[in-house]
Specification:
Length: 229
Amino acid sequence: MQIKKALLPTRSTSTVAAFFDRLGCFTTRDGASATVRIGQSRVRFVEGDFDGSHHLAFTIPTGTFDKARHWLEQHTTLLSIEDRREFEGPESWNSCSMYFDGPDGQVLELIERRGLPSRHVESFTAADLECVSEIGVAVPDVPAAVATLRAAGIRPYGNEPTGDFAAVGDIDGLLILVTPGRAWFPTTSRYVADTPVTVNTSVERGLTLGAGKSLQPATTSPAEKAPTG
């Protein structure tokens, strides 16, 4: 389930654009929106008012974790738990992650998925980010959202879903479905932003997961409808 495009609100497009510019990502600005290129994915941020924080994860090539960490530490702050800054994923994921402080309170993540092909990188840069790997989506009923996605052929990944958390998709791309009010790991104070989210991926028809939360076929541009609220 490759995440081709996504549309999210932000309180400040200038802050978002400046942050990703500093990382070296290609960004474009258009009035009250900013679009960031992450490898094969595009994320468009549109200004709006909301509470909470977004979560996005970016896939890095297998075998580049240490170089990616060195690069990242030159640009922003890694998030930690008791000085631990590297986190093994569940056994079924075969992954390793680092989380970092993003713009507008975002909880961002670089994830190495060891089931994907390795690639040699001399010196890691933003150009080595492969795609958006995960997008957090707040839903009022996680099991109901999982059932909607399962009916469309998009199944839970790794561990079984719980009442307040589910990863749905595959090694190429995941929706992280959570209930509002939950804190994003590894923090205890950055809570899930309950906002509209549009994700363009390999679905054959549009799917609604909650008010303003939808999956759309990859041929449909999220620019066609900006989030509100």
